From TrEMBL:
Protein name, entry field: Coproporphyrinogen III oxidase
Family matches, as InterPro entries: Aldolase_TIM (IPR013785), BchE-like (IPR051198), Elp3/MiaA/NifB-like_rSAM (IPR006638), rSAM (IPR007197), rSAM_sf (IPR058240)
Keywords of this entry: Iron, Iron-sulfur, Metal-binding, S-adenosyl-L-methionine
Classification via Gene3D superfamilies: Aldolase class I
Cofactor(s) needed: [4Fe-4S] cluster
SMART domains associated with the record: Elp3
SUPFAM superfamilies linked to this entry: Radical SAM enzymes
GO molecular function: catalytic activity; iron-sulfur cluster binding; metal ion binding
Residue ranges of domain Radical SAM core in the record: 11-241
Length: 292
């Protein structure tokens, strides 16, 4: 298999074959992100994709799902994505779901009709890092979209019947806007419901614009106590379907919690319990998180 630079995948795709169809991220401007700083975005060569599919075809009987790499393969045109799906089915006929990271920016270049064609071709359960629906924060982190874009593009996805999985960044709005970020984000997700929500604590990676802002005193990370308060606020405000998953067990997170929304009160009790059990020093600590 061919992989260029560092390769990322969601924790839940640990057992899913990863097929590189793009290198890097087409956008690569979010202030907090260092994932693809060392690589230039490009489409992977067709011969490489075909060679990898031939390699995977040995296990064709066991492969019913595939994850496309890298940062945002959904930026490819509808025709290119349909072509990739055709090649996948030629080699892996049992595949039922083609998934990948996608962004609101990627969705802008597709109509509802395009998205319906992609859904029919197996594209589903896209991982979208919304991070926040708080407009001033979206601007500050240079996410490349507004809250209005998020509402419009997620409505298109919903109309096309494509399910999505949401990543939210705890602490990204700073102390002042922490609860506004939680409230606005919950409102968006209650309107356009994802299958799952993953809150990830904001990490300041060296070399990013966010790291520069922290060094210059323009941004301060939340304390451990404030991060938990924000996560509790988000969960309180979220009103998702009972089967939707709250996937708060990323290694960055202060208190691991996972469960269906039918168990929302139990999850809240757990998070409140951790917060109440923290000493003053623990609440006020600002831990440095490294790696991914
Ligand atoms: S967060 Fe996602 S969209 Fe933003 S630069 Fe990183 S990979 Fe690209």
């Amino acid at each position: 298999m061919h992989y260029t630079g560092q390769t990322f995948r969601p924790p839940r795709e640990a057992y899913t074959p990863l097929l590189e169809v793009t290198v890097g991220c087409s956008y690569n401007q979010c202030t907090y992100c260092a994932m693809y700083k060392d690589v230039t975005y490009r489409k992977a060569p067709e011969e490489q994709v075909l060679a990898d599919l031939r390699e995977l075809s040995v296990y064709a009987d066991r492969i019913d799902r595939i994850f496309l790499e890298n940062g945002d393969p959904f930026i490819l045109s509808t025709e290119e994505l349909l072509e990739i799906a055709d090649r996948i089915y030629e080699h892996l006929p049992n595949v039922e779901i083609i998934t990948c990271y996608a962004s609101i920016v990627d969705l802008k270049n597709k109509t509802v009709e395009d998205l319906k064609r992609l859904r029919k071709a197996g594209y589903n359960q896209l991982y979208i890092g919304i991070e926040t629906a708080h407009d001033p924060t979206l601007k500050k982190i240079k996410k490349g979209c507004t809250q209005a874009d998020e509402y419009r593009e997620l409505a298109k996805l919903e109309e096309a019947g494509i399910d999505w999985i949401c990543m939210v960044m705890a602490g990204i709005a700073g102390q002042e806007d922490s609860f506004a970020h939680a409230d606005e984000t919950a409102k968006l997700l209650n309107t356009h419901q994802p299958l799952s929500v993953s809150p990830l604590t904001t990490t300041v990676h060296p070399g990013t614009e966010l790291a520069r802002m922290v060094a210059d005193g323009e941004f301060q990370t939340l304390t451990e106590g404030e991060i938990l308060e924000e996560e509790i606020r988000l969960l309180e405000k979220l009103d998702l379907k009972p089967r939707a998953l709250f996937f708060g067990i990323h290694s960055y997170n202060t208190a691991p919690v996972i469960g269906r929304f039918s168990e929302k009160e139990e999850m809240l009790a757990k998070l409140r319990g951790v917060l109440e059990g923290m000493s003053e020093a623990e609440r006020n600590a600002r831990f440095v998180r490294t790696g991914y």
